[in-house]
Design a protein that fits this description.
Elements: H1 8-21, E1 25-30, E2 33-38, H2 41-55, H3 58-66, E3 72-74, E4 79-82, E5 98-99, E6 104-110, E7 113-118, E8 123-128, E9 135-136, E10 141-145
Antiparallel strand pairs: 1-2, 3-10, 4-6, 4-9, 5-8, 6-7, 8-10
């Protein structure tokens, strides 16, 4: 296994981005090389989870605490979540909506790239577990589609 040269300036810029966005880690990949910059996640998760839990309906918060619902759609990456295609526009989904497989549920912005998150299945949206514009962690529950 050959080592690749460490780009200290890139690491510094990624660390600054962590501070600016409030994220706990950032990972970039180029061919066979991968660079991950992370800080202790516990304090960030606590500060991110507290506002979401206060806003989320109690049943949804209890479901997540008890374990992931089988219809839970988790964040495939770290980034900022957007529930609408642009500020002021109608959201992609609302609780009670019926969605089809492949339909956009929300957008996750990562490294200034907007990534549509498609529904992995058809069904009814029973919970939206995130707030618009807030940071999300990899694997964090976002939406429940039953």
């Amino acid at each position: 296994m050959s080592k690749f040269p460490i780009d200290e300036e890139a690491i510094r810029k990624l660390a600054e981005l962590l501070n600016e966005t409030g994220l706990s880690e950032i990972e970039i990949e180029d061919d066979d090389r991968r660079l991950r910059v992370a800080r202790q996640a516990a304090p960030v998760q606590a500060s991110v989870a507290a506002p979401s839990a206060a806003v989320a309906p109690a049943p949804a918060a209890e479901e997540v605490a008890a374990g992931p619902h089988p219809g839970t759609v988790a964040a495939p990456m770290v980034g900022s979540v957007y529930l609408a295609p642009e500020p002021g526009a109608a959201p992609f989904i609302q609780v009670g909506d019926t969605v089809r497989e492949g339909q956009t549920l929300l957008i996750i912005e990562a490294m200034k790239v907007m990534n549509n998150l498609p529904s992995p299945r058809s069904g009814k949206v029973t919970a939206i577990l995130v707030e618009d514009g807030k940071p999300v962690e990899f694997g964090e529950p976002l939406v429940v589609v039953e």
